[in-house]
Amino acid sequence: MQTASLQIAPQGPHFSRVVLGLWRLADWSMSPQQRLAFLEQALDLGITTIDQADIYGDYQSEALLGEALALAPQLRQRLQLVTKCGIKLLSSHRPAHQIQHYDTSRAHIIASAENSLRSMGIDEIDLLLIHRPDPLMDADEIAEAFQILQQTGKVRHFGVSNFSPAQFELLAARFPLVTNQIELSLLHMTPLQDGSLDQCQRLRIAPMIWSALAGGRLMNDTSERGLRVRQALEVVASELDVAPGSVALAWILQHPAKPLVLTGSGRIAALREAVAATGITLSREQWFALWCASSGHSVD
Prior knowledge:
The protein is of the alpha/beta class. The protein is built from eleven helices and twelve strands.
């Protein structure tokens, strides 16, 4: 089975519904050849979109991806590469950073994008995201940086990550945005109530979902809520003869905002489980059974 792709916004790019997140790439202890083989296996599953950030792996993950791509440059044409900027971490790889902080200045956005291009060994980033809302965000200055990067052919599309609806509206009023990458899972349902998914649906923008399995806690959380959710997942999984993890992702994918889900695992089995979710349709009763298990009460 392969995952499908969709256009994530009007005049936006086409991305795979399952996105390969490389946040932990540096922890997987893979050789460049093993990283390349992993990418090829993901492509065989229809996973064509890769999620990165400048800070991932203590500023090393983009370079690790670049090493793999250098072994098979032709793969670049089959991939959509997403990366993020705007956070400055304290790191031996960035000795000039004196305090951990956000920086969405024009100079930093442009410099970060150019550094990401060098690290990954590519000519163009498909999508650049502002990683976190910056209290000092100047929407006009960010829009100017985006325009420069787009006009110089360094970045095709732009979006944000972890922005509230109001923060999204502010920046989108200055420059077209194609997605908001937000946290959503059966253990974190806030976007269903805070307007984030409503906004995406109104604008016909597909959100990118991180921590869709609650960072792995969904399958081992021993709290009362975690146990309720896991029991409900197992019931639905048994009814459909699929894995509980696939059901948890299908619950997200079924939202009419047409979300994409990120998977951050280095195991091909986990990628297959995620791809299987794209072929699952839950009944309304099954969907709400999971919602009720998480919320701890029935709908009013």
